Amino acid sequence: MPEDQDTRTVLSDEELRTLDAHWRAANYLAAGQIYLLANPLLTEPLRPEHIKPRLLGHWGTSPGLNLVYTHLNRVITARGLDALCIWGPGHGGPSVLANSWLEGSYSATYPDVGRDATGMERLFRQFSFPGGVPSHVAPEVPGSIHEGGELGYSLAHAYGAALDNPGLLVACVIGDGEAETGPLAASWHSNKLLDPVHDGAVLPILHLNGYKIANPAVLARLPEPELDALLRGYGHEPLHVSGDDPAVVHRALARAMDTALARIAEAQRAARDDGASERVRWPVIVLRTPKGWTGPAEVDGKPVEGTWRAHQVPLSGVRDNPEHLRQLEAWLKSYRPEELFDGSGRPVADVLACVPEGARRLGSTPRANGGLLLRGLPMPSLDDFAVPVDKPGTTLHEPTRILGDLLERIMRDTADRRDFRLVGPDETASNRLQAVYDASGKAWQATVLDSDEHLDRHGRVMEILSEHLCQGWLEGYLLTGRHGLFSCYEAFVHIVDSMVNQHIKWLRTSRELSWRAPIASFNYLLTSHVWRQDHNGFSHQDPGFVDHVLNKSTDVVRVYLPPDANTLLSVADHALRSRDYVNVIVAGKQPCYDWLSIDEARVHCARGAGIWEWAGTENGGEPDVVLGCAGDVPTQEVLAAAQLLRRHLPELAVRVVNVVDIARLLPHGEHPHGMTDFEYDGLFTTDKPVIFAYHGYPWLIHRLAYRRNGHPHLHVRGYKESGTTTTPFDMVVRNDLDRYRLVMDVIDRVPGLAVRAAAVRQRMADARSRHHAWIREYGTDLPEVAEWSWNA
Fold first, then answer.
1. Percent of the chain having pLDDT more than 90?
2. Number of C-alpha atoms within 13 angstroms, CB side, residue 781?
3. pLDDT of res. 427
4. CB within 8 Å of 271: residues ≥ 6 apart
5. Which cofactors must be present for this protein to function (predicted)?
6. Nearest CA to 85 among 193, 179, 203?
7. 1 pLDDT higher than 50
8. Within 10 A of 121 (CB to CB), how many other CB atoms are there?
9. What is the DSSP letter of 518?
10. Contact 474, 421 (CB under 8 A)
11. pTM (2 decimals)?
12. Distance CA 353, CA 349 (A)
């Protein structure tokens, strides 16, 4: 036994016997789910008709997960712990479902799947079966907050769950394959931001069974000293458990868990009672057991147990191959189900000896149904933060800086309850949100230098240069009943495209489960956006996250493009109060004209899209042309174009329509926020030219509005992948979104203007030429652009 392990843990023979009984029962149930349609207790000889027609599932990881679940039950019961477990190995569904059923959590959630023979048969039948449940750990599984379908995020989710949960232990099982992903590799550094005073503890359990689908696992092939050195370099203290003899492994894992929990408890006591400030070196358990342990050792003359062949379905021809059927029956009977379940199919007392009671069961913890614990944020009045707007376009503010003041108040007002976090990849101050530092510093447990600013051992602002970790932390935080916001440069939020996919899928499925309570929405603030990344260049210019998100479930996604500071306040207030959504807010951090008062902003944002009468020249009549806009820079260019039209073509009736909620452009039947045809036609008309200036890729607007009556008359300008390091106005010129081009578009599309306004069009083209010459000589924008202001 290694010297650093707790020598006091010695399982009695009785404890070993009951732990092993629980583990065998879970293994039996996991295998049964993969194979059986009927005859769940093998009360009659196994026949082909008892077998599912399509065999789906993953056996290889199941015995290891069952082992961990069994031993977590033991320590939860013995120590009276509140615990949550994140099950990282992809398709580990059979194990978590099996253990949830054994402990009674599954039947409490789904009464039709009782803890008896009938319920066992339903448990088996529904797994990976049409109308049933997925093969991975999903929202349908009680006790889960982590979707097992995509690998890489388990440890980040675990840390997010532990934040501001000082009484919670979050175990996290990390599989061989997941351990090779980039997000997981970065997640090991989360321990440098975990506060032993106000946060709970994370116990990573690196489960190495040697293989992925068809290849060896990198970490599993490292010699133990090298792996040990790697984990110590990450700041952990490893505890190694390995073997293939169940009795030996049971004793070793029990010893390792007790050692780990004793160290965690001592570290928390020292920090909380003695004021210890040294960074904690948290324990990690490295568990090495064979892949497909206790399953068939050999099939068709080829080794299976302990190899990659055990990954999914070890015996694939059971319905057609009598030898496979015989092997399956022998395998299932090797667990001695007659000792584990009584005549009615109920687990016997020995199997349940280690299982916790009530809400301490892993499948029943309210932390895995965070909406049950969620409290509304103490949202202050927006009047306290709004900028005064006596007339449109006469004052300038940095919208995100104004939002930062609101977030600072929220952070301050949640100081005692600690249920709000701001996360971002090293960009809080860059994104003008630094006011939050007056209420909370940045979480940090590592070395602090005299030159550092705003670092705080107990801080609730989370910064790390990994968008994956920011996303994963906040998902774990929200799913366990808290609130937050993710601030990110617009171009680089794409790094988490796949992660947001998974979260959206989780929310959509959760909405269909009556027992899952709504959680706080995941709120993105995308700033440092495409139109004001002129100094950083092409690599920082990409507005496509909105397109990505709007491809997803319309029940879940919301996208807002507030054009000024007060509309940003209104949108943020709505998003932070909302539940079960993914809200994407795109707003600039550079000085921007103020267009609407806070009362006007509230009304406009509630409407989602509306006519700005003060900006147009309709005078109560029908417009000749509609100028639409969505986004802060496009709005300014449209207003500048409207001003030019007012000056050069005063007889033209111009309508200006601003869109804040981009989903308003969709038909009402396609999105809850979509407009009816009557509403849309009222704003944009059915037969007049519409020149639409959009923040992102122009074809998105066409896609949203393609079925509208006026779509043949819709012309959209936006970002068309023309970027570089240049001036702010040159960015819009390069992409034909500038005011001069918009005026030219009006002249080109309003009947009769092509000839009548040819001279005006020529002036606009000349202005663009002057712009090109000017910036190349002076390196700044034309004075008429740089010094422009709204003057109607």
1. 92
2. 15
3. 84
4. 196, 197, 277, 280
5. thiamine diphosphate
6. 203
7. no
8. 19
9. P
10. yes
11. 0.96
12. 6
